[in-house]
Amino acid sequence: MALRRFDIEAGGDSFSFKPETEPTIAFWLAKYPEDKKRSAVIPLLWLAQKDNAGWLSEPAMREVADRLEMPYIRVYEVATFYTMFRLQPVGKFHVQLCGTTPCMLRRANDLKEVCQSKIGNKMHVTDDGRLSWEEVECLGACVNAPMVQINDYYYEDLTPESLGEILSKIENGVEVQPGTYVDRLNSAPEGGLTSLTEAGLFDGSRNEIAVLPNLPDAAPEPEPAPVAAAPKTTLIEAAKPKPKADDKPDVIEIAAGEEDDLKRIKGIGPVNEKALNELGVYKFRQIAAWTPANVDWVEDFMSFPGRIEREDWIAQAKQLAAGEETEFSKRVDAGEVESSKDEGDE
Amino acid sequence: MSDDLFKLNIDGQDIEVPRHYTLMQACEEAGAEIPRFCYHERLSVAGNCRMCLVQWEGAPKPIASCAQTVGDMRMNPDGSAPNIKTSGDYVEKARAGVMEFLLINHPLDCPICDQGGECDLQDQAVAYGRADSRYELNKRAVEDKNMGPLVKTIMTRCIQCTRCVRFAAEVAGVEEIGMISRGESAEITTYLEESLTSELSGNVIDLCPVGALTSKPYAYNARPWELRKTESIDVMDAMGSAIRVDAKGDGVMRIMPVINEEVNEEWLSDKSRFIWDGLARQRLDKAYVRKNGKLTPVSWGEAFEAAKDALSVPAEKVGFVAGDLIEVEQAKAALDLARALGVQNTDCRPAGASYGVDGVREHYLFNPTFMDVEEADALLLIGANPRKEAAVWNARIRKAWLWNDLKVGMIGEAADLTYEYEHLGTGPDALDGLFKRDSEMAEALRNAERPIVIIGEGALAREDGAAILKAAHDYALEIQAIKDGWAGFGVLHTAAGRVGALDAGFVPGEGGADTATILGGGMDTVVLLGADEVDLSKLGGAKVIYVGSHGDAGASRADVILPAAAYTEMSATYVNTEGRVQMTRRAVQPKGEAREGWAIFRALSDVVGKTLPYDSAEALRAQLREENDVFAGLGYAPGDAGVDALKAPMAAAGSVNAAVPFGAAISDFYMTNPIARASKTMAECSMQKQGLETAVAAE
C-alpha cells in the first residue's frame, strides 16, 4: 500500500453534497444520537465520495467533518485508513481489480496486464476521463475468481479477452452487463449442476417435519407432513399447511368511488384497507361472504394475523353490508377513532 | 469503582491492591519495573506497544499489563491468587520479541539523534532487547512532518505509540495530531501538516519515547550528559511551574518541566519551555547613561552617580514602578530604599488596578489552589482567560471538565478555552445577572457544593477594578463558595512577580501615587524595576532609571540603565498566584556586568547615603521573614487556611461601570514580557499564531 495523500490541486476549494443526497444524509444522521453523530462518519464519507465523481477530495472531507462537528484530523484518519476512500481522482468508470490469492491463482495477474495496457498505470485516469484502475484486496467473490468491480457492480469469471472487451465497451460508451462471464448461474457450477441433481431436492418432496431435539415437552405434536408438492419453504413455515391459491375470495370490479369505507370495521385501518383493496376486496358484502378458507388466505396479507377471527370481521361486515351500524362504526363516523382516519396508522 | 482489595502474587510476593488498578500498577506496587512506551500515567491506556508484557501463570499468552485491570483477573483453579511473573525466560523472550519488532523499522541513527542519551527506546533496547536484529529487508522510511516552530519531527523514528495523539486530544484539548493510514504506512501527523496551535505543544517532545518529536530550537545544541541541570521556578506566568534549567557553559540550552503535582503536574507551557533563547538576546550587560541623547556604556560607579543625581529631587516627585518579573528580594530592597528616601510613590500593580491595599492577603491570592479545581463542581471565570494566562492550569480545568463534570462559566472576551463553558457576558453587567439567577449557570453555581470564583487581571486592571473585585467576592459569599474547608474565591494573576511584590508591601505608601499617576507625567524621576508592560508615553520630561535584564520598552526610554540578572541567573524568591513562596536557583552567571536586583539597590543606597541594613541576600530574606511570616514557608500554598479572612465582606469600593466590557489581560500569549520579546522562537510562534488568526478572520 502506497502513501495516501489528498490530491489537493484536483480537489479544488469547495465541495457540496448534491441536493438529492440530503435525504440519505438525514437517514444516516437519524440513526445516531445528536451528540454521537460522528458515528456517521463512514457513511457520510462514502456519500461524499459518490457525490464527488468517485473520489474523496480534501474539501469534501472537510464538509463531512463540519457536518459532524469533528476535528479534521479525526476524519482524515478514517479517510486514510480505509483504502476504499480514494484520495485522488478516478475515471468515470473505476476498475477495482482483485489481486488476492484466489483471484491471483485464477490468473488475475493477466487481467492486470490488460488494465495496464488498456488504461495505464494504477490510478492513472485515461485522457477522456472514463477509465482508471487499481488493485484491491479480496472483494469476497472468490468462487467467481478472477473478478473486477467497476463502480458498483461485479464482473466475474473474467479472462483477459472478456475483460478487454468490457473495457473497450466502456470506453466506447456501450453498456456492459454485470455478473459472470462464463456459462453459469451466479456461483453455480459452470455448464450446469454436476452433483445434487435429483429433482426431489428442489421440489419440496423431501421436506419433512423436523423435530428439534431439545424442544420442551409441552411442545405441540407436529402435524402430519403435507403430501402435496409445496413450494420451497423453511421447515418452520412448513409446519402450517399453506393456503391454496384457489382459496382466494372472489374478486369484483367496481367503479372508482363506489368502494365501502372498510375502516368502519374494527380491526381495519388504512394499511389493512389498502392491502384488501389490492386483493380486490372493496365491499362489506365481499367480506361477509368469506369462507374459512378465504379467511386463511386473506390472513397472509394482513398485518397482525388472527384478527379477522378475533375481531369477527365477517359478522361486522354482514351488519354493515345490511346498512346497519356497529358500535365501532358509530365511533368511526363520529371521528373518534384515530386509526380509522385516512392519515392514521395501524 | 470498588476499592475492594484484590490479592495477587507477583514474582512470588503476595500483594493486595485496589481492584481498579492495572496489572502494571500492581507490579510497580510490588517493586517490579515494567518497561513501556505507549503507556503514560496521565493519558488514556492505548495498549499498542506491547512492551509491558508479563506472564500470568496459566494464561495462554503473555499479558499486556498496562491494559489488564486487576479486578478482571481470575483466581487460580484452586482459588489462590493469580501468579504473575515480571521476569524470567518467558517474559524476557516476549519482551525481546516486541523490542525486535519495534526496532525493525527504527533507524540506527542514535549518534545524530537529539534524543540520544535520554531515549526510552535506547535504554530499553539495551535492557530488554536482543543483541542483534534478524531483519534483512529494507527499513521503511517516513516523510517528516511540519508541526510548527517548536516541534521538530523525524518521523522515521516513530514507533506509533500515539502518546502525542492522546496528549493533544486529552490534555491539550486541541485535536490536531492523529495517526493516518494504516499498517506499515501508518504515520503520525497534524492535519495537512499544519502547525500545532496549543500553548502546551512542547510537552509532546517530553512524551515522545523516541526521537521522532524533538525540540526544534534545541536541535543539535547539546547532549544531555553535557548539561548542568538546575531545578528552578518558571516566571513566565504567575503559576510558578517547576522547571529544570539545563545549561552548558554560560548559556541556557533548554528548559524542561519538573513534576510538581500541586502546580504543573508534569507539563509546561510553550512560553516557559522555549523562552531560553531570549535569555541570550537583547541583554543589558553593562550600565548605561544617556549622554547627549545617546545611551553610552559607563562604569557602575558612573551610573550610580547619574542615578544619585536623578534621585536628588523632592521625594514626592519620585516614583518607583515594579514590573512583572520582579523577584521579592529586589522589590524589598527597592522599597526600603524608596522609603529611606521618603518616597511614597511606589507601585507594582498594572495601571488602574487597585487591589492589594486593604491589608488582607487573601483578597489578592488565588485561594482555591490549582489542585482544588479537580474537586470543584462549578467554576466561574471573570475577566480571565486561563488558556493564555495560566496555560498549564487550563489543562487541569480541562481535566476536571472532562472527567469530573465540572461546569464552567465565563465572563469576559469569548475565547477557545479547549473545553465547553457557558459564556455569560463580556462585562460587569453579567455579574449582576448572576446575582439575579438569570441563567442555568447561575443556578449551577448556586447549587454547587464546591464552587470556585476566579477573577482575572482583565477585570481588575481598570478604574472600577476594586468595585468589581468586591462584587465578585460578594457573589462568592452569596453562593457559599467561601466556607470552612473551601476557599472558592481567588485572583488569577498574570505576572510572576506581582504577588511577591504585594507581599513585600510594594504598594503606594501614605499619600503615595499609584502606577497610573506615577506614569501619567508630573514626576521628575521614575525608577522602573523591569517595568516594560506599562504605558511610558506620558512620562514627559521625567528622568528614567531602568533596572532590568533586557533592552526593551523601559530601557529605550531610560536615562540610566542598571543591568540586572534574569531569573535563571539568581537564586531568588517568587510567590505564585496561589501565594506559594518558591525559589529559583542560579543556573548560569548573570550576563556581563549585570548584578542581582537587590544588590543593585543595596549598592545604590550606599551611594545616596541611605545604606540598607543587609549585606547578603540571606540577611535580606531573614528580614523579610521577620516582617512577613508568609515568606517563612517555602513551597506551601495557604489554600483554605485563609478562609476566615475571606469570610468578611470587602469594604465598599465605589460603583461598577457596567457598560465597559472586560478586556483581555494578555493579547499575545508569546509576547508577554521582555525575555519573550527577545526570543526568536517566541517571535516565530507569535507570527505564526497571528498568521493563523488573520487567515481565519479573512474567510
- Number of distinct helices of chain A: 15
Q: What count of helical segments of chain B does DSSP give? A: 22
Structural class of chain B, by secondary structure, is alpha/beta
Q: Let me know the largest β-sheet of chain B.
A: 7 strands, mixed
- The total count of strands of chain A amounts to 5
Largest interface: A-B, 15 and 15 residues
Q: Briefly note the structural class of the backbone of chain A.
A: alpha/beta
Rg over C-alpha atoms of chain A, rounded to the nearest angstrom: 30 Å
Mean pLDDT of chain B: 93
Which runs of chain A of at least 5 residues are low in confidence (pLDDT < 50)? 229-242
The assembly state of the depicted protein chains is heterodimer
Task: State the end-to-end CA separation of chain A.
Answer: 54 Å
Q: Level of helix content of chain A?
A: 25-40%
Commentary on this structure:
The complex is a heterodimer of chains A (346) and B (699). Chain A is α/β, with parallel strands linked by helices and 346 residues long. Chain A folds into 3 domains: 9-81, Orthogonal Bundle (Arc Repressor Mutant, subunit A), CATH 1.10.10; 93-180, Glutaredoxin (3-Layer(aba) Sandwich), CATH 3.40.30.10; 245-333, no CATH class. Helices cover 34% and strands 6% of the residues of chain A. Chain A is built from 15 helices and 5 strands. Chain A has helices at residues 8-11, 22-30, 41-51, 58-68, 72-81, 101-105, 108-118, 160-171, 235-238, 270-278, 284-288, 292-299, 307-310, 313-321, 327-333, and strands at residues 93-98, 131-136, 148-150, 153-156, 179-180. A 5-stranded mixed β-sheet of chain A has the order 2-1-3-4-5, covered by helices on one side. In chain A, β4 (153-156), α8 and β5 (179-180) form a beta-alpha-beta unit. The longest helix of chain A is centred in the middle third of the chain and has 12 residues, at 160-171. In chain A, 27% of the residues are buried. Chain B is of the alpha/beta class. Chain B is built from 22 helices and 28 strands. In chain B, α11 (428-435) runs parallel beside α14. Chain B is globular. The A-B interface holds A 1-4, 6, 8, 58, 71-74, 76-77, 80-81 and B 143, 175-185, 190-192.
